[in-house]
Protein backbone atom coordinates (compact mmCIF):
# COMPACT_ATOMS: atom_id res chain seq x y z
CA UNK A 1 0.00 0.00 0.00
CA UNK A 2 2.81 2.42 0.92
CA UNK A 3 4.64 1.61 -2.31
CA UNK A 4 1.47 2.23 -4.32
CA UNK A 5 0.91 5.63 -2.68
CA UNK A 6 4.54 6.54 -3.33
CA UNK A 7 4.22 5.62 -7.00
CA UNK A 8 1.02 7.66 -7.29
CA UNK A 9 2.81 10.66 -5.80
CA UNK A 10 5.77 10.25 -8.17
CA UNK A 11 3.41 10.00 -11.15
CA UNK A 12 1.68 13.20 -10.05
CA UNK A 13 5.06 14.96 -10.12
CA UNK A 14 5.34 14.28 -13.84
CA UNK A 15 1.95 15.92 -14.39
CA UNK A 16 2.58 18.87 -12.07
CA UNK A 17 6.17 19.03 -10.73
CA UNK A 18 6.48 20.51 -7.25
CA UNK A 19 9.35 21.44 -4.96
CA UNK A 20 12.84 19.97 -5.02
CA UNK A 21 11.62 16.63 -6.40
CA UNK A 22 9.68 18.46 -9.13
CA UNK A 23 12.79 20.42 -10.13
CA UNK A 24 14.75 17.18 -10.38
CA UNK A 25 12.04 15.53 -12.46
CA UNK A 26 11.94 18.55 -14.78
CA UNK A 27 15.65 18.18 -15.49
CA UNK A 28 15.25 14.42 -15.87
CA UNK A 29 12.60 14.99 -18.53
CA UNK A 30 14.98 17.32 -20.38
CA UNK A 31 17.43 14.44 -20.70
CA UNK A 32 14.78 11.85 -21.54
CA UNK A 33 12.85 13.80 -24.17
CA UNK A 34 15.57 15.31 -26.36
CA UNK A 35 14.66 13.04 -29.30
CA UNK A 36 11.00 14.13 -29.22
CA UNK A 37 11.93 17.80 -28.72
CA UNK A 38 14.29 17.92 -31.71
CA UNK A 39 11.83 16.07 -33.95
CA UNK A 40 8.90 18.27 -32.91
CA UNK A 41 10.85 21.44 -33.65
CA UNK A 42 11.56 20.08 -37.14
CA UNK A 43 7.81 19.61 -37.67
CA UNK A 44 7.17 23.29 -36.88
CA UNK A 45 9.04 24.48 -40.01
CA UNK A 46 9.88 27.73 -38.24
CA UNK A 47 10.27 30.94 -40.22
CA UNK A 48 11.92 34.26 -39.27
CA UNK A 49 9.85 36.37 -36.88
CA UNK A 50 7.53 33.48 -35.98
CA UNK A 51 5.82 33.76 -32.60
CA UNK A 52 5.83 30.30 -31.02
CA UNK A 53 3.94 28.94 -28.01
CA UNK A 54 5.01 25.82 -26.10
CA UNK A 55 2.13 24.42 -24.05
CA UNK A 56 3.44 22.50 -21.05
CA UNK A 57 6.96 23.81 -21.61
CA UNK A 58 8.49 21.96 -18.67
CA UNK A 59 11.99 23.12 -17.79
CA UNK A 60 12.25 25.11 -21.02
CA UNK A 61 14.52 22.90 -23.10
CA UNK A 62 12.48 23.20 -26.31
CA UNK A 63 12.43 26.98 -25.91
CA UNK A 64 16.21 27.00 -25.53
CA UNK A 65 16.70 24.77 -28.59
CA UNK A 66 14.58 27.07 -30.78
CA UNK A 67 16.30 30.21 -29.53
CA UNK A 68 19.71 28.72 -30.30
CA UNK A 69 18.70 27.33 -33.68
CA UNK A 70 16.62 30.12 -35.18
CA UNK A 71 17.21 33.86 -35.41
CA UNK A 72 14.42 36.37 -34.88
CA UNK A 73 11.84 33.96 -33.44
CA UNK A 74 9.98 34.86 -30.26
CA UNK A 75 9.08 31.97 -27.96
CA UNK A 76 6.59 31.72 -25.13
CA UNK A 77 6.37 28.85 -22.68
CA UNK A 78 3.39 28.05 -20.48
CA UNK A 79 3.19 25.47 -17.72
CA UNK A 80 0.84 24.84 -14.82
CA UNK A 81 3.72 24.26 -12.41
CA UNK A 82 5.36 27.32 -10.78
CA UNK A 83 8.29 25.06 -9.87
CA UNK A 84 9.00 24.10 -13.46
CA UNK A 85 8.40 27.63 -14.75
CA UNK A 86 11.20 28.82 -12.48
CA UNK A 87 13.49 26.20 -14.08
CA UNK A 88 12.48 27.34 -17.58
CA UNK A 89 13.12 30.97 -16.68
CA UNK A 90 16.59 30.10 -15.36
CA UNK A 91 17.42 28.07 -18.47
CA UNK A 92 16.39 30.92 -20.77
CA UNK A 93 17.29 33.88 -18.57
CA UNK A 94 19.38 35.77 -21.14
CA UNK A 95 16.71 35.55 -23.84
CA UNK A 96 13.94 36.48 -21.40
CA UNK A 97 15.90 39.59 -20.44
CA UNK A 98 16.48 40.38 -24.12
CA UNK A 99 12.74 40.13 -24.86
CA UNK A 100 12.99 37.07 -27.12
CA UNK A 101 11.31 34.71 -24.65
CA UNK A 102 8.75 34.64 -21.89
CA UNK A 103 7.56 31.88 -19.58
CA UNK A 104 4.30 32.05 -17.65
CA UNK A 105 2.23 29.94 -15.28
CA UNK A 106 -1.14 29.04 -16.75
CA UNK A 107 -3.75 26.44 -17.58
CA UNK A 108 -4.10 24.90 -21.04
CA UNK A 109 -7.87 25.29 -20.96
CA UNK A 110 -7.79 29.07 -20.38
CA UNK A 111 -4.72 30.48 -22.08
CA UNK A 112 -3.72 33.99 -20.88
CA UNK A 113 -3.03 35.33 -24.37
CA UNK A 114 -4.95 37.49 -26.85
CA UNK A 115 -6.56 36.13 -29.99
CA UNK A 116 -4.31 35.31 -32.98
CA UNK A 117 -1.14 35.87 -30.97
CA UNK A 118 0.96 32.96 -32.28
CA UNK A 119 2.12 31.55 -35.62
CA UNK A 120 2.91 28.12 -34.16
CA UNK A 121 1.62 26.25 -31.13
CA UNK A 122 3.13 22.98 -30.00
CA UNK A 123 3.04 20.65 -27.03
CA UNK A 124 5.11 17.61 -26.12
CA UNK A 125 3.87 14.86 -23.77
CA UNK A 126 0.93 16.80 -22.32
CA UNK A 127 -1.98 15.27 -24.23
CA UNK A 128 -2.32 12.51 -21.61
CA UNK A 129 -3.23 15.17 -19.03
CA UNK A 130 -5.76 17.20 -21.02
CA UNK A 131 -8.85 17.04 -18.84
CA UNK A 132 -11.03 18.69 -21.52
CA UNK A 133 -9.74 18.07 -25.05
CA UNK A 134 -12.30 20.33 -26.80
CA UNK A 135 -11.51 23.21 -24.40
CA UNK A 136 -7.76 23.00 -25.03
CA UNK A 137 -8.21 22.75 -28.80
CA UNK A 138 -10.59 25.70 -28.76
CA UNK A 139 -7.94 27.75 -26.98
CA UNK A 140 -5.25 26.64 -29.45
CA UNK A 141 -7.53 27.70 -32.30
CA UNK A 142 -8.20 31.05 -30.62
CA UNK A 143 -4.56 32.02 -30.05
CA UNK A 144 -3.36 30.84 -33.49
CA UNK A 145 -3.07 33.49 -36.17
CA UNK A 146 -4.72 32.72 -39.53
CA UNK A 147 -2.42 30.37 -41.41
CA UNK A 148 -0.77 29.30 -38.16
CA UNK A 149 0.02 25.68 -37.39
CA UNK A 150 0.05 23.31 -34.44
CA UNK A 151 2.06 20.19 -33.53
CA UNK A 152 0.95 17.98 -30.64
CA UNK A 153 3.50 15.26 -29.88
CA UNK A 154 2.83 12.24 -27.69
CA UNK A 155 3.60 8.53 -27.35
CA UNK A 156 1.04 5.83 -28.15
CA UNK A 157 2.93 2.77 -26.97
CA UNK A 158 6.20 1.16 -25.99
CA UNK A 159 7.89 -1.82 -27.56
CA UNK A 160 5.24 -4.26 -28.70
CA UNK A 161 2.52 -2.62 -26.60
CA UNK A 162 0.07 -0.06 -28.00
CA UNK A 163 -1.65 2.31 -25.62
CA UNK A 164 -5.22 2.08 -26.86
CA UNK A 165 -6.45 4.79 -24.49
CA UNK A 166 -4.39 7.64 -25.93
CA UNK A 167 -5.00 6.40 -29.49
CA UNK A 168 -8.75 6.53 -28.81
CA UNK A 169 -8.51 10.08 -27.45
CA UNK A 170 -6.78 11.21 -30.64
CA UNK A 171 -9.18 9.51 -33.06
CA UNK A 172 -12.44 9.94 -31.12
CA UNK A 173 -11.94 13.36 -29.52
CA UNK A 174 -8.95 15.28 -30.85
CA UNK A 175 -9.35 14.90 -34.62
CA UNK A 176 -13.17 15.30 -34.71
CA UNK A 177 -13.00 18.39 -32.47
CA UNK A 178 -10.17 19.97 -34.46
CA UNK A 179 -12.10 19.42 -37.68
CA UNK A 180 -15.28 20.88 -36.17
CA UNK A 181 -13.33 24.01 -35.19
CA UNK A 182 -12.32 24.45 -38.83
CA UNK A 183 -8.69 23.46 -38.39
CA UNK A 184 -7.37 21.91 -41.58
CA UNK A 185 -4.63 19.60 -42.92
CA UNK A 186 -4.90 17.41 -39.82
CA UNK A 187 -2.41 14.55 -40.07
CA UNK A 188 -0.97 11.93 -37.72
CA UNK A 189 2.76 11.49 -38.34
CA UNK A 190 4.94 8.74 -36.91
CA UNK A 191 8.21 10.02 -35.44
CA UNK A 192 11.37 8.35 -34.18
CA UNK A 193 11.14 5.92 -31.29
CA UNK A 194 12.63 7.30 -28.09
CA UNK A 195 13.76 4.87 -25.39
CA UNK A 196 11.52 2.30 -27.14
CA UNK A 197 8.47 4.60 -26.84
CA UNK A 198 6.51 5.21 -30.05
CA UNK A 199 6.50 8.91 -30.94
CA UNK A 200 3.54 10.40 -32.84
CA UNK A 201 2.44 13.93 -33.66
CA UNK A 202 -0.89 15.32 -34.77
CA UNK A 203 -0.34 18.38 -36.93
CA UNK A 204 -2.74 20.85 -38.48
CA UNK A 205 -3.31 24.42 -39.56
CA UNK A 206 -5.69 27.29 -39.01
CA UNK A 207 -7.27 28.33 -42.31
Structure at a glance:
This protein is of the alpha/beta class. The chain has helices at residues 2-15, 19-32, 34-44, 61-69, 82-91, 93-98, 133-143, 164-180; strands at 51-55, 74-79, 101-105, 118-124, 144-158, 161-162, 183-190, 197-206.
Describe the fold and architecture.
Helix 3 packs across helix 4 (61-69) and helix 7 (133-143) crosses helix 8 (164-180). Strands 1, 2, 3, 4, 5, 6, 7 and 8 form an 8-stranded mixed sheet that branches. With 207 residues, the chain is of the alpha/beta class. 44% of the residues lie in helices and 28% in strands. The longest helix has 17 residues, at 164-180. Strand 1, helix 4 and strand 2 (74-79) form a beta-alpha-beta unit. It is built from 8 helices and 8 strands; from the N terminus they run H-H-H-E-H-E-H-H-E-E-H-E-E-H-E-E.
Proportion in helices? 40-55%
Q: Count the strands?
A: 8
Total number of helical segments?
Answer: 8
User: Mean of residue pLDDT?
Assistant: 90
Our measurement of the CA-to-CA distance between the termini, rounded to an integer number of angstroms, reads 51 Å
Helical/strand content category: alpha/beta
Can you write the helix and strand succession as a string? HHHEHEHHEEHEEHEE
As an assembly, this protein is single chain
What does the largest sheet look like?
Answer: 8 strands, mixed
